[in-house]
Amino acid sequence: MSESPIYRATGIKKYFPVTGGILRRTIGHVKALDGVDLDIYRSETISVIGESGCGKTTLGRMLAVLQKPTEGELTFDFGQELQSVKELDREEELAFRKKVQMIFQDPYTSFNPRQRVGAAMNEVLEVHGVDDPEERFARINEACEMVNMRVEYLQRYPHEFSGGQRQRLAIARCLAVKPELIIADEIVSALDVSIQAQIINLLRQIQEDTGLSFVFITHDVAVARYVGHRIAVMYLGSVVEILPAEALPASAEHPYTIALLSAVPDMNVQKKKQIALQGEVPSPIDVPTGCAFSTRCPFVMDICRTQRPQLRSASDGRSDHQVACHLETPPIGA
Amino acid sequence: MSNILELKDVNVSFAVESDRLHILRDVSLEVPRGSFLCVVGESGCGKSVTAQAIVQLLPDNGKVDSGNIRYFDQNETLEINTLEKFGAKMRSLRGAKIGMIFQDTLSSLNPAHKVGRQVAETLRQHLDLSKEEARERVIELFKKLGIPDPERRYDAYPHEFSGGMRQRVMIAIATACEPDLVIADEPTTALDVTIQAQIMTLLKDLQKSAGKTFLLITHNMALVSEVADHVAVMYLGRIVEYGTVEQVLRSPKHPYTQALLKSVPSLAADKAIELLTVEGQTPSPADVTQGCEFAGRCAYIVDECRQATIPLISFENSHQARCMRLDKSGNLPAPTKVGDNV
Amino acid sequence: MVGFLIIFLVVTSAIFAEQISGYDPNLMDGMSASMSPSTDHLMGTDQLGRDIFSRVLYGGRNSVLIGVTASFLGNLIGTVLGAIAGYLGGKLDTLFIRLSELFMTFPQLVLVLIFVTFLGQGVSNVIIIFAITGWMTTFRLVRSEFLSLREEAFVEADRAFGFSKKRIIFRHLLPNTMSPIVVAFTINIAIYIIAEAGLSYLGLGVPVTTPTWGNLLAAAQAPVVVEQYWWLWVFPATAIIVFVTGVNFIGDGLRDVLDPRQRTRGSKSTFKSALKEKLIGTRERNS
User: Fold this and answer.
1) Distance, CA of B121 to CA of B116 (rounded, Å)
2) Distance between CA atoms of B291 and B285, rounded to whole angstroms?
3) Helix/strand/coil for B215
4) pTM value?
5) What is the mean pLDDT of each run of 10 residues along chain A (334 residues)?
6) Is B162 on the interface with A (CB under 8 A)?
7) Which of B42, B47, B189, B192 has the most A C-beta neighbours within 10 Å, making it the best mutation to test the interface with A?
């Protein structure tokens, strides 16, 4: 990718202090994110996958600046050049939030239960300076059309909608603001399979029609592949591999990615179990030194325990494929 | 191969406010001994209720209105639905002959008791073991199920375990008395995929090595494809398709099964093709009282579909599907409706 | 509905007390002392010849005034402080909590005594004193609601949309805490009416000459009175019971009306739907 990214995260760390003892001293840290670099480009969907404790949700919140990173830099392209968005005053914050929106996992609580959904959407537009009620109405109309929601339903309260409908409303609420990037945190995980498919198709359609960028956070690898152009695989607070969606599952190179793919049940993939992971993910308080995956990796070498691997180009030579591993060639052939 | 469990025309209803909702509709199943049956469906299809009915653990407002549930023990046949819910016979069934694994381990395990004791409790309840004997057995069990450091873990509390480990504890409780039938209700839905793989391997091992029969309730079709011998697909309280996993997943006959399978994203599928979706959502049981439950969303609907209850039709090799639009060889005609996806 | 009727009755009779009764409640007519209810005196007279009916009416005005105003004021203080403390947290929260604990360590009686010494007796003083000594419960209530609501996903969504703290607190969080606030409000009314009675009995609250229901009850305490002059206490007591029940009904009704989740089923009277439109303030689009 030769063009510059719309959003860049460098060296993001998020440590949560753990206090203990009578004097409540800090005895350790939960390292939710331990040095994450990520570039997000215009008109692309990047899926972020990983299991529990990998930090993907925390990453989402960092990107949405709902919390500040402990270390690291976030820069967003407002039109001229990349600008840091870590510390923003009220005016800058509003400008940023206009461009970067977020949708949450639980469709049942992401709307104020006492507010009609139409009023909620209206309010968002008001806050973002769309003063003309006619224009607000027009935008809301447009957004509802994009998600196939009838405008008459906007008079209702959130609890009158099903989970899938609520997620569509949440998407519409973001779309009305006309953002450039939407961060979607596990938005289909709480839905039935057939409803999930509806939302996935919808996201793909919206992406094609509007050219928005999406950061799609999910634990479901198959969904990630369907929705995203690129996939970022996370493990215990760092990104271990970034690869184009078509390269999954065949060209995955990082042992964890391969293990993850081995574990995912799939109807169509004829699998020889490539890596069956034993044990459990270490606690983020006790992140192993060197490579975070070193304690469970079947191909671990001495260097893995002492030196943290950085993201480098993968062996298949594709510019959009990077892996953070000391192995020079992928452990299992494609 | 004889059956270990048979359900015949089971109907269950729930009292909700002043209505009775018809939750299970004429559910019939035959579970061969030593097999792995998956009951699959989306939320509201009644799969969990089926499991609850089998062990008579329906909530207070639920009732088995008609039908038989028969459990075939080594020596005798028990008609479960005729037994007293908390009577001695039923209690000796639960845990000892039929084990249950639940989804939410945090609330299914008593947080105030040590984990070892909870497993031992089952043992001492059903078999006459002393405290030490029970403890020995539990530690053996922990070892077999892959719980590290079993002697120390015996004295740990549930919250000290990770989700995957807790689920192993639940499996320990469910299998401690070596039941022949184990019912697992969405046991891995809340777990990471790599842990899920470990747990499923464990269960399949138990099936093969100990000859246990498994009834797994899940919404995950992909999982079904990997572990099941037989599959029963449910929709709004009715079994709409049944067969071996090969039959149901490779050549599904019922429109709902077909749609469900096509809406699951797969790692091997062509990304460019949109996922198939089913129009609308699952209706409430109160809204569908006659005809095919899926009629409102089916692309092959004709008027007759809404009129009478559709029977389960058998095709070759005991592959069954509940659809009147299927011809003799089990094929559907052209769709009558071209719906859009919303 | 019933609640509204009751309150409506009581409140109007309190406001129009002078018109309804024929008597000056303070007029002592020695001649007619201690008479049981008659056509002249609907509720009888007391030992000093004062007409009970008028005293109940005037007393109603005072009692209701005290109860409602004190409750409202106390609730207001508690809500504002609780909202700020609950949402913002940090040092401000700690400060407010310590403040509330300070107030709570003193038995209410002692606090009231202290304030009465400074402020003296009288209806408005009693109101102020009750509000100052009673805001803590609402404070704790609102604060804990806010603490838990703060973590809800829609609040996060609001922040992600760039809503100001003020907007979040007042437009989104407060409406969701209305239910416990309304309940606290109605309960406090009853509490204060009765508390006032106790105070007046001790000679601390409202002076004996100013009638309040509590006062009337207090004056009717001697066993001989309870037995023989039943009209002296039955009427004020009934008045209190009726009023408090009415307030509770309203509280229930308001709570249901305010919760949109209750509304999808069944028929509510048009009065209530009108009320609810007014209370929720929907932004209807002009399409």
Assistant:
1) 8
2) 12
3) strand
4) 0.79
5) 80 86 75 91 93 89 90 86 80 88 85 87 88 90 91 89 89 92 91 88 91 93 92 93 88 90 82 72 84 88 89 84 86 61
6) yes
7) B192
